[in-house]
């Protein structure tokens, strides 16, 4: 299994790695800073720099649904290096950092809407959460509440709780459809100051001040009890 360096430090931009396997259109490494698509967050893109100077473009990163293997997807037609090749894996940092800011902003929004989350998606320019909510919230009031927490520059901390602790505190899980993976002994958590605390495997900024001001976009009705709230950077 690929060692997930980004879980402990979202600010790692590159790492040394060795190719442990390949399959059609994909490279598998012993360790990686590339986040694989999951939890509503897109996978990382970037480059692999081989010792002979060859540069391979990584278009996306995903997890194999059956094995959990990290697949670094190359551009179509790219020759795959042999197993054992050593390289430097470098993420597209500007893109990743924008996704980190967005993801953390959604955690704050989640704390300001008193309803379960029924879906979500993180993007570079726009992100959204779907809430099990009968009525739309006041957009201006919600944006003001989120921006107040951003301006307060509160710390964002990575930690973990045991499977047993999570089972004893089911209210920590805000999402209705996606449950955090268990069975490994512990579950990764994200704490946003005194604002939000929940299981999450995504990448985040170190403090809310890094997010920058946001605005609330469309609030869409997606069902009798489903309101989609879109968020943008100001």
From TrEMBL:
Its cofactor is Zn(2+). GO terms for cellular component: cytoplasm. Keywords: Metal-binding, Zinc. Residues 1-234 form the Alanyl-transfer RNA synthetases family profile domain. The lineage of its organism: Bacteria, Pseudomonadati, Pseudomonadota, Alphaproteobacteria, Rhodospirillales. The keyword Methyltransferase does not apply. Pfam families: tRNA-synt_2c (PF01411), tRNA_SAD (PF07973). The keyword RNA-binding does not apply. It is found in: Cytoplasm. This is Alanine--tRNA ligase. It comes from Candidatus Terasakiella magnetica. GO terms for molecular function: alanine-tRNA ligase activity; aminoacyl-tRNA deacylase activity; ATP binding; metal ion binding; nucleic acid binding. Gene3D superfamilies: 2.40.30.130, Threonyl-trna Synthetase, Chain A, domain 2. It comes from the Bacteria. One of its GO terms (biological process) is alanyl-tRNA aminoacylation.
